[in-house]
Specification:
about 400 residues, mainly alpha, Growth Hormone, Chain: A, globular, YQGE family putative transporter, MFS, Sugar_transport-like, membrane, transmembrane
Length: about 400
């Protein structure tokens, strides 16, 4: 039986949920907003490139701050910088198209500051006995944010003139970010210990037989899919329907399914079932792309989205749990948690850049529905390789 979450873990979940709600309100529509301003797949790709690269660089640099000083300040600054990003988009308006890469970099810095601190605090407030439960709740709350926030945003955008709807939702996001910062002060101050090792990741990978030599490519395989799907799915829904309200409806339905799926799987999935569950999840999140080969329409995209929402928890919960179990497998590795979390992020970013490179090669030259579907399928099957690399960590609950 999974152990219950204490007050600090619950509060961390609330802060994460507020961060997710604010980003779901506006972040869902940022690629659409930029697309309407530029009409260019290439520009959206450059935005994502700036975001991914700066996000990891921020992880790496801020890792020292989180390791040696009060990590909660990094988390708060990340929320604050997210507000700055949406403020910049709000103030620039249609001129945002002239600052695509700087805006991506600003967004990446905000995400890096928040997630490097969040991931360390998450490790500290959970343990192997309640990590599945925390991940289930995190997925559930994230899905709940995705149910209502994008739908409300799409409704407002389509019913307000010109850019007024975008201005309103960006403003609402700023308010929610501010609430998240305030609530974060109820999280305990967590001062770092030890000295940050800048070369830690490389040193780990140089050791023969080190488990991270398999874990890192597994994480990268997850990142390949994320690098494209994080922005292309919503953009494809908008292009197929030509209305933000349909994108809001899509997010509402798929997030509702994900909420139910994360809730059930988060409660019922035991570690002894991780190997089979993760394989099923990896195969099915690829298989649900197949209807798009028939036709790219709102209905086939909805089938794909519902299928992904149903099966993604089977993949992502074991992946996340086992990574943090590996970090915490000994006192020595737990003391190096900040460096390991930076290494984990490096794996994700390497994967995202591989996926994004495929996007930047294909779509600027051929942006037909068929090309988009093949691209999605090409990156969508890569998590199966992630399961293959993860197999040693999924046996009998072991992490080595």
């Amino acid at each position: 039986m999974a152990k219950s979450l204490d007050r600090q873990a619950a509060l961390l979940l609330i802060v994460q949920a507020l961060f997710g709600i604010a980003n779901a309100l506006s972040g869902t529509f940022v690629p659409v907003y930029l697309w309407k301003a530029t009409g260019s797949y290439m520009m959206i790709g450059w935005f994502a490139l700036g975001q991914y690269v700066v996000s990891w660089l921020t992880f790496w640099v801020a890792g020292k701050w989180v390791k040696e000083h009060n990590k909660m300040n990094s988390l708060r600054l990340g929320i604050f910088m997210s507000g700055i990003f949406y403020s910049a988009v709000l103030l620039l308006g249609t001129e945002a198209k002239s600052y695509i890469v700087p805006l991506g970099m600003l967004s990446g810095m905000a995400l890096g500051l928040f997630w490097v601190a969040f991931n360390v605090v998450y490790f500290e407030v959970t343990d192997p006995d309640n990590r599945d439960r925390f991940n289930g709740w995190a997925g559930l709350l994230g899905s709940a944010a995705g149910i209502f926030a994008p739908w409300v945003s799409g409704f407002l955008i389509t019913r307000m003139k010109d850019e007024q709807g975008y201005r309103l939702i960006f403003t609402i996001s700023l308010v929610i970010f501010a609430i998240g910062v305030v609530l974060s002060f109820w999280l305990k101050k967590r001062h770092g210990q030890g000295t940050y090792n800048w070369k830690h990741g490389i040193q780990q990978l140089m050791i023969k037989g080190n488990p991270w030599r398999r874990m890192l490519p597994a994480i990268a395989a997850q990142g390949v899919r994320e690098g494209v799907f994080m922005f292309l799915v919503g953009l494809t829904v908008y292009i197929a329907t030509n209305t933000e309200s349909k994108l809001g409806t899509y997010s509402l339905i798929t997030s509702l399914v994900a909420l139910i799926s994360f809730w059930i799987i988060g409660k019922k999935l035991g570690k002894k079932n991780h190997k089979v569950a993760m394989l099923i999840g990896a195969v099915m999140i690829a298989a649900v792309i197949l209807p798009l080969f028939w036709k790219v329409s709102f209905m086939t995209l909805l089938l794909f989205g519902i299928g992904t929402s149903l099966f993604m928890p089977l993949y992502i919960i074991p992946m996340t749990t086992r990574v943090y179990d590996l970090i915490g497998q000994s006192e020595e590795s737990a003391r190096e948690r900040e460096e390991f979390i930076v290494l984990r992020e490096a794996g994700l970013v390497i994967g995202r850049l591989i996926g994004l490179s495929m996007y930047l090669i294909v779509l600027p030259f051929n942006d037909s529905p068929r090309a988009i579907t093949w691209l999605m399928f090409g990156v969508g099957v890569v998590p199966i390789a992630g399961w293959w690399f993860m197999r040693p960590f999924l046996k009998s609950g072991k992490t080595t």
